[in-house]
Specification:
heterodimer; A: about 250 residues; mainly alpha; two-stranded antiparallel ribbon; 2 strands; B: about 150 residues; alpha+beta; OB fold (Dihydrolipoamide Acetyltransferase, E2P); extended
C-alpha cells in the first residue's frame, strides 16, 4: 500500500510525468484510430435504421459520446482542480489546463450535432429547454475557464482563480444529467442508464459504446500531447527541461 | 490537521454549500424550469390563462382531424387528461398519432389550445423497424388472447 502510494506520487512531478505521457501517446492514438474505424463502420453500415426516425438517428453515434465526454472531462478537470488547490501539486493544474480545449470541443460537437438532429426530428434547431440550456452553460464554463486562465500572467494565481471557477461550475454537471428527469424538457430522457439498462436495440448500443471508447482514447492521446507542451512551457527555466534531448538538439 | 487536509475540508464544505444553494434555487423555481405544461395542469387551471405557454403530451390515437386550409385538430393527453389543440401550419415529420409533441400557443375561450408552433418530442427508444413490427405483433396477439379469455 505504502509502496503503491510512493509510485503514484512519483508521477505527480512534471519531470517524471513528461516521459510517461510521451509513452502513452502512441498507444492511445493507435487504439483511438482502431476504435473509431470499428465504431464508425458499425454505426454507419452494421446498425439497422430506426423504426421511427429512419437514417437520421445515426447522429447519436457521435452526439451521445460527445455529450458524455463533455460532462466527464469537466468532472476530471474538477478533480484536478481540487487536488491542485488542496495539495498544491504543479501537475494537476497543468492537467486541467490541457483537458479544457478538448472538453470545449466535445461540448460544441454535442450542441452542433444535436441542432442538426433537432431540425428534422423536432422541427427546430434550438429550444431553451433545461437540457439544451445547461449544456450551453457548460460550453460557456469551458470558454470562461480558458479565458480566465489566459488572462492572468502569473501561473500560480491563474491556477487558483481558474480552479475556483471550475469548482463553482461543477454544480452544472448534475443539472445537465438530471435535467430530463427533474423537469419537462423537449430533449428525450436517457436511453442508457445504470439502473434501467438501455432502451436501444443492442447492436445500436454497442456501436455507440465503441464510439464512446474511441472518444476516450482520442481524448487521452490529445491531452497527453497538450500536457507535454504545457509542461515544457511552464517548466522552461528548470534544469531537467534544458537537459532534454529534444530541447538540446 | 495538516494545512492541506484543512484545504480539502474547506473545498468540500464550499462545494456542499454551493450544492445546497443550487438545490434551494431550483426548488423555488419549481415548474418554471419546465419546458412545457401537461394536460393535467391545464385542466387544473395551473397553466397561464392569458398568455402564451407550451403544452406537451401524446397525440391521442384516432383524434387527428385535418380540416380546411391546413388546420389540424387533435387531442393531447398525458393519459390522465386530454386537451383539444388546433394548429394551422406544417407539422414536423415525426408528428403522428401516439407520438409525443410539444405545442406552443394559448388557450381560447372555449378551452381549446390554439397552437402556433408544434414540435415533435422523441422518446428514448431506438430500434430497427423489424423489432418495432414484432413488438406491435406481440401486442396484438396479447390483446386477442385477453379478448378470447374474456369471451369464454
Amino acid at each position: 500500500m505504502k509502496k503503491g502510494l510512493i509510485h503514484w506520487f512519483k508521477y505527480a512531478s512534471p519531470a517524471s510525468f513528461y516521459p510517461l505521457a510521451g509513452r502513452i501517446i502512441p498507444w492511445a492514438a493507435v487504439i483511438a484510430v482502431l476504435l473509431f474505424a470499428v465504431g464508425l463502420y458499425m454505426s454507419l453500415f452494421v446498425a439497422p435504421m430506426d423504426y421511427k426516425q429512419g437514417e437520421g438517428y445515426r447522429i447519436i453515434f457521435i452526439h451521445v459520446p460527445a455529450a458524455w465526454m463533455s460532462m466527464f472531462i469537466y468532472v476530471v478537470m474538477v478533480f484536478w482542480a481540487i487536488i491542485g488547490l488542496a495539495v498544491n501539486t504543479r501537475l494537476s493544474a497543468m492537467m486541467a489546463q490541457a483537458l479544457a480545449p478538448t472538453g470545449a470541443m466535445f461540448t460544441f460537437l454535442a450542441l452542433w450535432t444535436g441542432a442538426f438532429w433537432g431540425k428534422p426530428m423536432w422541427g427546430t434547431w434550438w429550444v431553451w429547454d433545461a437540457r439544451l440550456t445547461s449544456e450551453l452553460i457548460l460550453l460557456f464554463l469551458y470558454i470562461g475557464y480558458i479565458a480566465l486562465r489566459g488572462s492572468i500572467d502569473d501561473n500560480r494565481r491563474a491556477d487558483r482563480a481558474s480552479g475556483i471557477l471550475l469548482l463553482v461550475g461543477a454544480v452544472n454537471i448534475p443539472i445537465i444529467h438530471y435535467s430530463v428527469k427533474w423537469w419537462n424538457t423537449l430533449h428525450q430522457g436517457s436511453s442508457v442508464s445504470f439502473q434501467q439498462g438501455s432502451s436501444m436495440s443492442s447492436i445500436m448500443l454497442y456501436g455507440m459504446l465503441i464510439m464512446a471508447l474511441a472518444c476516450w482514447a482520442y481524448t487521452i492521446a490529445v491531452v497527453m500531447v497538450r500536457v507535454r507542451s504545457v509542461i515544457l512551457q511552464r517548466e522552461k527555466d528548470t534544469k531537467w527541461v534544458k537537459n532534454l534531448a529534444e530541447i538540446q538538439s | 490537521m495538516k494545512a492541506r487536509h484543512k484545504r480539502f475540508v474547506f473545498i468540500f464544505v464550499g462545494l456542499a454549500a454551493l450544492g445546497v444553494a443550487a438545490a434551494l434555487i431550483f426548488n423555488a423555481l419549481g415548474s418554471n424550469m419546465s419546458y412545457f405544461y401537461s394536460p393535467t395542469e391545464v385542466v387544473r387551471n395551473e397553466a397561464p390563462q392569458n398568455h402564451v405557454f407550451r403544452l406537451g403530451g401524446m397525440v391521442v390515437s384516432g383524434s387527428v382531424q385535418r380540416g380546411q386550409e391546413l388546420t389540424v385538430r387533435f387531442l393531447i393527453t398525458d393519459t390522465a387528461n386530454e386537451v383539444k389543440v388546433s394548429y394551422t401550419g406544417i407539422l414536423p415529420d415525426l408528428f403522428a398519432e401516439g407520438q409525443g409533441v410539444v405545442a406552443q400557443g394559448r388557450l381560447n375561450g372555449q378551452g381549446e389550445f390554439v397552437a402556433d408552433e408544434v414540435l415533435a418530442k422523441h422518446d428514448e427508444t431506438y430500434m430497427p423497424p423489424e423489432a418495432a413490427a414484432a413488438l406491435e405483433q406481440g401486442k396484438l396477439e396479447a390483446m386477442k388472447q385477453s379478448a378470447a379469455g374474456a369471451g369464454r
